[in-house]
Structures are given as C-alpha cells and as structure tokens.
Amino acid sequence: MKILITGTAGFIGAALAQRLLDRGDEIVGLDNLNDYYDVRLKEARLARLTSHPGFTDVRASLEDREAMARVFAEHRPQRVVNLAAQAGVRYSLKNPHAYVDSNLVGFMNILEGCRHHGVEHLVYASSSSVYGANTRMPFSVHDNVDHPVSLYAASKKANELMAHTYSHLYGLPTTGLRFFTVYGPWGRPDMALFIFTRNILAGRPIDVYNYGKCRRDFTYIDDIVEGVIRTLDKIPEPNPHWSGEAPDSATSLAPYRLYNIGNHQPVELMRFIEVLEEALGQKAEKNLLPLQPGDVPATYADVDDLMRDVGFQPATPIEEGIPRFVAWYREFYGT
To answer: pLDDT tens digit string along 302-323?
Structure first.
C-alpha cells in the first residue's frame, strides 16, 4: 500500500515507517523537524529511512493547510497514520498555543485530506493522558474520559471527537490509539528514561516525582509498532449493536474504533529506576519531589479490545526493554 505517515522523524513514526518499508509498503513520510527536542536525533532517525527506495521524504507542518492539501493531492495515499503532534504533558503548561496549532488545526487538515481524497483508513495517535482524573483501573476505552488534567490530554480527546464526526458524516474509517508511556531505542529526550540515563551517566541527580510512587504502564516501542500495524490493517466497521441510550465511547454506528496499546502491567517508578541502574551499572542520586501539575499517579491499560479484534497484546517487560535502550544510548552517544 501507499501509506502517509506524519511524524516520521519522531520516535514512533520512524520505527513504524521502517517496519512498513520492510514489508514492502510505499511510505510518504511527513515531518517539519521542529526543535522541540534535539533535531540531530530526528535527522538520525530519518537517515535510516531516506536511503530506502520506497520512502518519500516530505517537509511540511500539519497546520499548513495549503501544504497538507498538496501532499494529499500529489501523493494520493491509500491509508494514513497521523503520529505528528506537539507532545508532552508538562510542556503544554508552558506553551499551550503549540498544541492548538499542531494537535487541533493540524488534525483538521489531516481529516480534510482524508475526506477529499478517498483515504481507506485513518489511524491516529491518541494518548493514555485522556483518562485524566479517572481512577478506576485498568483504564478501559469504554470508560468516560471527560475530565482531562492537561491541555495535551484535552487536545487528544478532541482528536477522538473530531475523528468520530468525520466517520459519522463522511463514512471515513478512523481508529484512535491511546498509547501508554512508550520507551525504547531511538526514544524521545524529554521522556523520563532518556533524562534519567543522561543524568545518571553524568553523575547528576534525577528528579523523581510523586516520591517515586507513580505507576506507569511502560510500553516497549516494538509492541507499539506491532499494535499500530495490526490496527492499520483492520479497517473498522460500524457496530450494529451501538445504542444512543447507552453509548459506548469506543465504538459507533459509524466506522470508528478506539484502542489502548499498553503493556497492561504497571510498574512503580522506583522499580523502573532500579532496572535502569542495573543496566547502567551505576546508582542514581534521587531528588524526591511531589506530583507535578498535569501528571497522574498511575496508568494501566485494559487491552481486551485490542486482543479480541487484532489478536495482539504488548508483553515486553522492562527487564528486557530498558537494557536494549541503554545499549542503543551508549552506542549512539558514544558513552
């Protein structure tokens, strides 16, 4: 297939593009290479893709309406995976306008491109952050998620609502994927694993929020990519049993689905740090701090729907994933 992937210089986008190229798909990869974090890392990810004859590199921003219209008109993708977004919960407290531009205006341009060019299936990144103030565990896609605690989370919830509208009005099949704390080689420098590794190796203390009692459903990058590919290959159909009297938020009378992609085995942050220390062969100096605004104490994915519909559930333990990240980090940065 010809597949448009947005955010191909990003962590998940680059890994997904590589896997799809390896299986023979033609990839149109779009990214604006913004400087939210180290552009050199983004360029290094892209360099692994641009040498492939099946990869077309496009430089554009989602919020540029004319540029996005040209991309769809010129390349005519059969399917689209939208991973480009302004990421980060904490950054959304500092620069909220970036989230409106990329995650709302940009996603609107993606929906319009899909609508006007007969795209077979749009898969887009949502986030576990949409669960916000929810406390019932594990988090289910069938639960109400109307109480976000960050603008980033609100923008991702808005994407789900916008996608449903286009599925309902125009019959555009859409699938939203709520990712849970993705980590692994080629990861993002603003994420805890990257920051911890850099500081520990430099002999600097690490900031440990909620006094290390946060629990996260850490999900290895290969599991995320496998989940994306399996859902991309399964075009959603209307749920004939959906009822407006007892609405199910994960399905619809329209061709619309939501899935969690998480390891469904939450790990306490202190245990996560212990495994990292073992992989590095070095102890961390910990600066224990309270929970930050916008953060939640715990995440835990219910992946029953993913398992039922596409036969897959993430299963890589941190005892395997963290050492793989450390090996990559040492090689990439020469430490």
So the answer is: 999 999 999 999 999 999 999 9
89 to each of 86, 102, 124, 190, 295, how far by Cα in Å? 10, 14, 18, 10, 7
Distance in angstroms (rounded) separating the CA atoms of residues 8 and 29: 5
Q: At what angle do helices 11-22 and 221-232 cross, to 10 degrees?
A: 60
Q: What is the dihedral of CA 203, 208, 213, 216, to 10 degrees?
A: -90
**pLDDT by residue (tens digit) across 35-63?**
888 999 999 999 999 999 999 999 999 99
211 in active site? no
Q: Which two tokens stand for residue 166?
A: 């286009």
Q: How far apart are CA 249 and CA 235, in angstroms?
A: 18
Euclidean distance between CA atoms 61 and 102, whole angstroms? 8
Please check whether residue 7 is in contact with residue 86, taking contact to mean a CB–CB distance below 8 angstroms: no
Catalytic residue among 37, 91, 99, 152: 152
Q: Do 321 and 183 touch, CB atoms closer than 8 A?
A: yes
